[in-house]
């Protein structure tokens, strides 16, 4: 097992490949600007912002997956606002949970019966603090 996001498990076996590419994490602080007459504004650090993670998943029927079912699982997680742990390499990523803030799917290859043969999903996760 490579890792997981909730019940979506990232694996690469002889029968099934469900992994991610282009993994990127970003963070930024929260700052307030206070106006001062005749001078530049004064900056004040309020605290850390919420981290964001983006990555792409590929679902290929030739790697033991049903792309439509895989995409449907992600749709449910996004629409229900599910907050879940994200792990990679047996270690948790971040300090708490993550939720899908953005989800874009591409049906790259569809057969003559409407079955998705190959699809990609671009996900953006945002830290979910309790």
TrEMBL record:
The record's Pfam families line, in alphabetical order, gives: Phage_P2_GpU
Q: Which InterPro entries does the UniProt record give?
A: Myoviridae_GpU
UniProt-recorded name of the protein: Phage tail protein
Upper taxonomic lineage: Bacteria, Bacillati, Bacillota, Bacilli, Bacillales
